[in-house]
Amino acid sequence: MARPAKKPAKRAARPAPPKPYHHGDLRRVLIEAALGLAEEGGPQAVSVREAARRAGVSAGAPFRHFADRDALMTAVAEEAQRRFRSEIGAALAEAPAGDPLKRFRAFGLAYLRWAMGNPAHFEIISSGRHFDHDRATALSRDNAELIALTKQMLADAFEKGQLRSGELKQIQITGRALVYGFARMNIDGHLPRWGVTEAEVERMAESVLDVFISGITRTTGSQR
Amino acid sequence: MARPAKKPAKRAARPAPPKPYHHGDLRRVLIEAALGLAEEGGPQAVSVREAARRAGVSAGAPFRHFADRDALMTAVAEEAQRRFRSEIGAALAEAPAGDPLKRFRAFGLAYLRWAMGNPAHFEIISSGRHFDHDRATALSRDNAELIALTKQMLADAFEKGQLRSGELKQIQITGRALVYGFARMNIDGHLPRWGVTEAEVERMAESVLDVFISGITRTTGSQR
DNA sequence: CCTCTATGTAATCATCGATTACATAGAGGC
DNA sequence: GCCTCTATGTAATCGATGATTACATAGAGG
Fold first, then answer.
1. How many CB atoms lie within 10 A of CB A78?
2. Cβ of A178 and B174 within 8 Å?
């Protein structure tokens, strides 16, 4: 039980890249461990020591790879964001190219689904309390891109006469507040007291999105 | 600097009620200190020891009044909720009695204003991560009342023909997700990256509420 | 083969939540 | 008016955590 073998199998399979020395790939393993801890007990359940324990290394080892706990959480957040974006991208790839409002809806739905399915990881990347966003440049860039994307979709929708109002910025923020709010209601355990059972969550997410979209859609006059 | 006088002035002014012994009113003072700590550094900045320090007592003293940190946070949350509800009540008292949709809007606006003005306290009562909600019965009851209140307002609005859809539950959840989401965007520091400056926040909150309300309002046909 | 550096270990420190044994100040019985 | 009793506060201590430091080691490359 005292970690007798340190993964000796991995010795041979290591070429030129800056791969690590002793452990297999401690940095990576620590991030995975932290992702798991967050999933199990929420973001605040992530402790450097517990991640080290799961990786089978001493309590000080992680600090060779991360300056402090915050740096670990930043790496965790960047991994989570990568997964999140990948899902969003997949959803958009399947959405109809010519209908901006449908694409907007598909985006919102993918956002909500990922947030429902990965509450802890979603909280890490969005709550702003779990790491210093100023250090996570990749994540900030990603976010900016997504913001620009929704802005463009709304502009296109307006251009095509799909919207009944031209206050695009207000509409954009409203939509964002809506999906973020629903995601957080789920994370924060509000939905049961609002009469939404576990089984209904996904369906309600879709309904909520539709209440919003039908509210901004032009109904009178020509549609396109 | 070594706490020479333990508030000797308060000795005389204490009648029959179950007032405390040594300290003036440590329980109360600890709650106030914790509220202050949360305001300054966010809910996670609340530590039992720091609250004790601010109250001028030893590190163990708070545990005479609160079983653990969670109990302190619960008391803090209940105080915050009391203030929150008081503000909501004041707003509703000023809203027109005969127009349910206007009352609904007034409610939402009061909600948003309080959340903007007291982000840390709002987070404590709503995020669900800072104390065990099962222990806070008063708070749960309060919440249930507010939920019932919004439900009633929407039902009245529908009754009066103010709504263009009868899917009241979906509308209710959508509205809640919206205000909660906007409040959290503010707390979590999202608004700047969505192009909302500090000075615009209050106005944007109102706009967002109006985008939603105009979306659910019946426009065609008779209004009332 | 030898050295050099990246990586991991062990020991240590401060802070925090929490518990325990002890001290004390008022309240109320007598 | 004294005496005891209990609520309250203190001091010391424990275990967990983040973080730092001195030391050990394994592989790379001259």
1. 19
2. yes
Q: What is the pLDDT of residue B219?
A: 84
Percent of chain B scored above 70 by pLDDT? 88
Mean pLDDT of B183-206: 98
Per-residue pLDDT for B13 more than 60?
no
C-alpha to C-alpha distance for B161 and A40, rounded to whole angstroms:
47
Judge whether residue B41 contacts strand C, using its CB and a 7 Å cut-off. no
pLDDT in tens, A183-195: 999 999 999 999 9
Protein CA B16 to sugar C1' C30 (Å): 22
Instruction: Please report the pLDDT score of residue B24 as a whole number.
Output: 78
Look at residue B188 and give its three-state secondary structure. Answer: coil
- The Cβ-side half-sphere exposure at B13, using a 13 Å CA radius, reads 6
Residue B128 φ then ψ, to 5°: 75, 5
- The answer to whether the CB atoms of B171 and A211 lie below 8 A apart is yes
The DSSP letter of residue B163 is: B
Q: What is the pLDDT of residues A154-169, one digit of tens each?
A: 999 999 999 999 999 9
Chain B interface, Cβ < 8 Å to A:
42, 44, 126-129, 133, 140, 143-144, 147, 165, 167, 169-174, 176-182, 184-185, 188-190, 193-196, 204, 207-208, 210-212, 214-216, 220
Q: How far apart are the first and last CA of chain B?
A: 68
Cβ distance B220 to A216 less than 8 Å, yes or no, reads no
Give the residue-averaged pLDDT of A31-51: 98
Rounded to a whole number, what is the distance in Å from the CA of A188 to chain B's nearest CA? 5
Domains with residue ranges and CATH for chain A: 23-66 (1.10.10), 79-216 (1.10.357.10)
Q: Which helix (H) or strand (E) holds A128?
A: none
Q: Which amino acid is at B102?
A: K
Average pLDDT in chain A? 90
Partners of residue B30 on adjacent β-strands: none
